[in-house]
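User: quick one, fold this
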Amino acid sequence: MMLFLSSQLNTYLIIGAFLFACGIYGLLQHRSLIGMLISGELVLSGASVNMMAFNRFLAPDPTVGQIFTLFIMGIAAAEAAIALSIIIAVYRNYKTIDAEDLQDLQG
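Assistant:
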């Protein structure tokens, strides 16, 4: 049974959609910046799972989906590094990482 499920595109698309939906829900519900960062990573991993699923089942060239997934992973790493540095700077100035407490920021 498990071998049959792993050979279908729908299984991977459902897993990717679940990760993406969990990430969007987390972005909307988390109040801390770290929680929002982790939720953003879930959104990107859901997109990566979908890219790899389409690559495995539909693409004539097997490297296209892998290249897109590696690109997404690079973007996720850069996003995490930049976001963590911003979170550290905000914490040093305001002594909180709660997003609702940061509404008085002046740009």
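User: anything notable?
Assistant: The chain has one domain: 2-100.
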